Amino acid sequence: MTQGLRTEEFLVNMGPHHPSTHGVCRFLLTMDGEVVVKAVPYIGYLHRAIEKICENRTYAQCIPIIDRFEYCTSMSCELAFCLATEKLAGIKVPERAEYLRIIMVELNRIASHLIWFGTTSLDLGAITPFLYGFREREDILDLYEMTCGQRLTYNYIRVGGVSRDIPSDFIPKTKAFLEKFPEKVEDYVRLLNENPIWMVRNQKVGVMSAELALSYGVSGPALRASGVKFDIRRDDPYSIYDRFDFEIPTGTNGDCYDRYLVRLEEMRQSAKIVKQAIEQMPEGEIKTKVPTNFKPPKGEVYSRIENSRGEMGVYIQSAGDSKKPLRLKLRGGSFNQLQVMPEIVKGGKIADLVAVMASMDIIMPEVDR
Amino acid sequence: MNRDDLIKYLLENHPGKIELLDTGKVEPFFALNKEYLLEFCRSIKTDDILAMDFLCNIAAVDTGEKLEVVYSVASAKNRIRFDFKVVMPYEEAEVESVQTVWAGANWHEREIWELFGINVRNHDNLTRFLLPDDWNQGNPMRKNWDAPDFIRMPEL
After folding, report:
1. SS3 breakdown of chain A: % helix, strand, coil, rounded to 5?
2. A169 and chain B: CB distance < 8 Å anywhere?
3. Is the preceding omega at residue A16 within 30 degrees of 0, hence cis?
4. Is the CB of B152 less than 8 angstroms away from the CB of A329?
5. What is the pLDDT of residues A244-280, one digit of tens each?
6. Which of A152, A284, A299, B65: CA 20 to 30 A from A257?
7. Which residues face B57 on adjacent strands?
8. Which among B62, B104, B131 has the least Cβ separation from residue A339?
9. How many CA atoms does the CB half-sphere of A25 hold within 13 Å?
10. Residue A110: its H or E element
11. What SS3 class is residue B87?
12. β-pairing, B94-96 with B80-88?
């Protein structure tokens, strides 16, 4: 009966226009039936040469471009770039501006995790969490809109401070949001945490050991889910993060489910930081005067922050006599998270690839730049 | 380990091989010879006191006179971070791969090979990456490379 029958590996192209690749990414999969034998990611579909463009712009003109580097957390990207530039030029930022930055960045982290929460559950077949996540994110976008007029790419954080002060109803509205937000997170917990389908699709899927994660430079929630308690906000504090009291959630198994739990807890912690920042925020100046003809001294710096997808690093080299950076290199967390994926999905089902990609929170513009 | 201790420790352990650059920033910045690169990377990774287990970034730079490759490393365990770089003339655009030390260096090195034309010795997969597969117009991140519709902003 079985004589003459044989099995054979075959190739499948997943993407570039696959809805669950979050951008435009292509996987060339070698399949044995439903099992992935080998996965090779192909990137570059969203390469916009941001770094080359920035070499031809002044420092102030770079900020709107860097917004597009990773549009889910534009505020963090601006902050990373401004911190690097300020480090290079030795600029001190006024107190109030520091607090405004923290409030914006942490709200941005919540918004980004909400997108992740929505799209991940959508990828795995749940529609309702997507609507819930976007409902809460809308409140945060409203807060941004009333502050700087933009909902996605803000150009709000500038070298030396922020572009404008918050309107008078910002604080009450943020407080109202923080008041109701923990209840909403509880809703998410009730929806998904013990949902049988969610558990089967996520538990023991895409397991990443701490050693593997570290050697591939994986950072952020994905690294912490593997049990490494490393958060740049605490271990290499920038801005004024040493003044706030917050916890760093970690996982134990390093699977998709742990990455989900870590992100859920991070949203709660971010809300806690925003609450503290609002209470501590002083009155005063919001921007240090930076000359129009701003030329940082000769030098180079690599500065990093904790973005919602891991370490966001900015390397700047300045020639000293130019208004434009000699070299600007952006490092996003997704770049390394995507690089480690072939190792994790090997030997799993093709459906698990979707779950792993979603749980890593990869966003392609950040990979391609 | 604070900044001064770290500098002292590294200079003592690699005498004559690395040079401290005076950038005046928080993290120390070293320059080293490219022949010594791989050995240096291995030693800072396996050293118990440093344990630089995390490669943050590799950035190549074309300064207009020479090429540089800048490595930013960190230790998740010991909370240390510093940078080091190798400098080379255009004619010798080549570095040793460090992916045996940090597996994550793979893509960073593909990128500097593709965009800067810096050859990476002993790299297992130097293939087209960010650019189209049939790209034949050179290395776009070099300073002497301009796209046809690229207009350079004048220095004001």
Report:
1. 50, 15, 35
2. no
3. yes
4. no
5. 888 999 989 889 999 999 999 999 999 999 999 999 8
6. A152
7. B72
8. B104
9. 26
10. helix A95-123
11. strand
12. unpaired
For chain A positions 305-344, those within 8 Å of chain B (CB to CB) are: 311, 313, 315, 317, 319, 322-324, 326-327, 329, 331, 335-336, 339-340
* Each residue's pLDDT tens digit, B96-111: 899 899 988 999 999 9
Rounded to the nearest angstrom, the gap between the alpha carbon of residue A47 and the centroid of all alpha carbons in its chain is: 18
Complex confidence, ipTM: 0.88
The H or E element spanning position A306 is strand A299-307
Is the separation of the CB atoms in A174 and A278 below 8 Å? yes
In tens, the pLDDT along A57-75 reads: 888 888 999 988 888 889 9
User: In the numeric block, which tokens belong to residue B117?
Assistant: 């034309």
Q: Are A25 and A16 in contact (CB under 8 A)?
A: yes
CATH numbers and ranges of domains, chain A: 49-368 (1.10.645.10)
Q: Which two tokens stand for residue B121?
A: 């010795």
What would the mean pLDDT of B37-64 be, rounded to a whole number?
A: 88
Calpha distance A275→A267 (Å, rounded)? 12
Report CB contact under 8 Å: A299, B25. Answer: yes
Residue A191: what residue type? L
pTM listed for this prediction? 0.90
Beta carbons of A215 and B79 less than 8 Å apart: no
Q: What average pLDDT is seen over chain A?
A: 88
d(CA B109, CA B83): 16
* Residues of chain A falling short of pLDDT 70: 1-2, 19-21
Round to the nearest angstrom and report the end-to-end CA distance of chain A.
Answer: 55
d(CA B49, CA A228): 18
Question: Is domain B3-96 annotated with CATH 3.50.50.60?
Answer: no
